[in-house]
């Protein structure tokens, strides 16, 4: 039957994750139902505050369901140690589960990582009711809805999502569910000082609805997944929502109670006494909780990998590489495994770039390593199939400095001109596989360009800064900004 019909109430859970980093405050795993978690204070953990479920599917039957997580005060979670974490995390479909009246703030993750979220319905999370929660001051988003493994029938209403350092509402992964409405977002207050409200894959044809929300960017133009409000509404989103100051009592000091003339009230928002979240009726525990000092954020760097050898043959078409990180702004300008071209085998990594993106360096793909360079030789190879108009930048970086120190760098322009250090070196053809080889040792690097049917071109004597002492980032950037282009990479080797 699993763990069921338990109440976890009025506890102070703090300072976990020092030895086992993935420890969390309360864990309800793969078989735990009809439990109530209420009025707990959970803080200073390196991973999740509350974890619900252990199934990556929105269609398969689950043994974790009908749980209630309410009136908890969850704060200072992550502390810069790990990635992919949240104050409240769910996985798999969970009918009857309610997340309500929680106060969540100060959620962070490690340097260079991802996922310092407030509430995070991960893969397949379905049938969730997320209602009347206050979530503010998170690193990566107050809410992250992961659009993977067919999540459906989630309802997010009457919440306050405010002052995330990134977007307030994030919809992760570029795959829409095959069936069913993913999520309904209504009567929420979504507020950002920098004007970015929706980010990720809230696409115009996505299976979600969002309306009657109060939206505010502190006077800045609000961004709706990269669109302005007019375009967003033309797609049927937030048609009856209002862009206006929510009129908090004192936002600067994080008093989120509403003044009587708040426009949120006219939209049907129902104020809730979030100050009642956490321990109640136990003065001794309340005093202890007030004495806890937020754990100092640890400067833990993102975990790194060893030698890289990737031909993409073990991955599925449409999949994002398991090693390395993909960075995109729009669903239609992304990076994924393809079987349209291959240098060897049947698959490669396809880049699609389109004009109109905010950053010219998107989309891009990077490996994170952590290799000390003195006394070490590094050899990098990759094959590329470039179409006309492709602008490909390949660079090695030392991110132990701010700003980073560049290492070996090449740029292939839209006409096929390959350059290093601003000097044109060679012309490479389009629509055929070419191979690039870079060899680095003792602040010096060399380059080979191999084109089928041609003599190998060799260039040497390139120098890097003396500050380039550690290789931490190896990137492939699609730098085209005004054309619709695509290209492919394969047989990447860096060792």
Mean pLDDT: 91
Count of DSSP helices?
3
- Strand adjacency order, main sheet: 3-7-10-13-16-19-22-25-27
Shape: globular
N-end to C-end Cα span: 50 Å
| Overall number of domains | 2
Largest sheet: 9 strands, parallel
Please count the beta strands (DSSP E, at least 2 residues each).
Answer: 44
What structural category do the secondary elements indicate?
mainly beta
Query: Per DSSP, what share of the residues sits in E-state strands of 2 or more residues?
Result: 35-45%
Radius of gyration: 25 Å
What does this structure look like?
The chain is mainly beta. The protein has two domains: 3-291; 308-494, Sandwich (Jelly Rolls). Helices cover 4% and strands 42% of the residues. It has three helices and 44 strands. The strands form seven sheets. Strands 3-7-10-13-16-19-22-25-27 form a nine-stranded parallel sheet, with helices on one face. Strands 2-6-9-12-15-18-21-24 form an eight-stranded parallel sheet, with no helix packed on it. An eight-stranded parallel sheet has the order 4-8-11-14-17-20-23-26, with no helix packed on it. A hairpin with a 4-residue loop joins strand 37 and strand 38 (417-420). The longest helix is centred in the middle third of the chain and has 9 residues, at 283-291.
Brief characterization of the structure:
With 495 residues, the chain is mainly β.
């Amino acid at each position: 039957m699993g763990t069921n019909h338990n109440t976890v109430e009025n506890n102070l859970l703090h300072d976990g994750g020092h030895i086992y980093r993935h420890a969390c405050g309360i864990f309800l795993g793969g078989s735990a139902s009809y439990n109530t978690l209420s009025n707990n204070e959970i803080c200073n953990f390196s991973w999740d505050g509350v974890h619900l479920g252990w199934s990556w599917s929105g269609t398969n039957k689950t043994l974790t369901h009908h749980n209630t997580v309410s009136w908890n005060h969850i704060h200072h979670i992550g502390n810069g140690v790990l990635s992919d974490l949240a104050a409240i995390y769910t996985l798999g479909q969970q009918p009857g589960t309610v997340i309500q009246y929680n106060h969540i703030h100060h959620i962070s993750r490690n340097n260079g990582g991802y996922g310092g979220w407030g509430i995070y319905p991960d893969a397949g999370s379905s049938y969730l009711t997320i209602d009347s929660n206050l979530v503010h001051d998170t690193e990566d988003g107050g809410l992250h809805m992961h659009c993977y493994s067919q999540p459906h029938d989630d309802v997010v209403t009457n919440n306050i999502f405010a002052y995330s350092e990134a977007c307030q509402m994030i919809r992760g992964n570029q795959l829409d569910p095959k069936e069913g409405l993913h999520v309904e977002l209504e009567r929420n207050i979504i507020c950002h000082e920098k004007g970015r409200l929706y980010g990720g894959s809230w696409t115009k044809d996505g299976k979600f609805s969002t309306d009657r929300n109060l939206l505010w960017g502190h006077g800045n133009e609000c961004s709706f997944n990269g669109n302005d409000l007019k375009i967003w509404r033309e797609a049927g989103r937030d048609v009856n929502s209002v862009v206006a100051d929510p009129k908090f009592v004192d936002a600067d000091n994080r008093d989120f109670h509403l003044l009587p003339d708040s426009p949120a009230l006219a939209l049907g928002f129902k104020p809730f006494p979030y100050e009642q979240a956490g321990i109640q009726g136990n003065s001794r525990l309340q005093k202890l909780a007030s004495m806890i000092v937020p754990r100092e954020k640890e400067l833990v760097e993102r975990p790194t990998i060893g030698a890289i050898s990737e031909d993409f043959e073990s991955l599925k078409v449409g999949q994002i590489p398991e090693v390395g990180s993909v960075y995109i702004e729009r669903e239609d300008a992304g990076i994924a495994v393809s079987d349209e071209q291959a240098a060897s085998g049947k698959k490669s990594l396809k880049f699609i770039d389109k004009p109109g993106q905010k950053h010219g360096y998107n989309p891009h793909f990077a490996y994170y390593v952590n290799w000390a360079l003195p006394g070490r030789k590094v050899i990098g190879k990759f094959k590329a199939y470039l179409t006309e108009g492709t602008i490909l930048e390949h660079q090695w970086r030392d991110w132990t400095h701010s700003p980073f120190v560049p290492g070996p760098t090449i740029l292939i322009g839209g006409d096929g001109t390959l350059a290093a250090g601003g000097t044109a070196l060679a012309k490479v053809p389009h629509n055929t596989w070419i191979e690039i080889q870079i060899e680095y040792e003792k602040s010096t690097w060399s380059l080979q360009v191999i084109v089928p049917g041609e003599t190998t071109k060799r260039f040497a004597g390139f120098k890097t800064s003396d500050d380039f002492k550690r290789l931490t980032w190896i990137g492939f950037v699609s730098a085209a900004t005004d054309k619709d282009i695509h290209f492919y990479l394969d047989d990447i080797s860096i060792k």
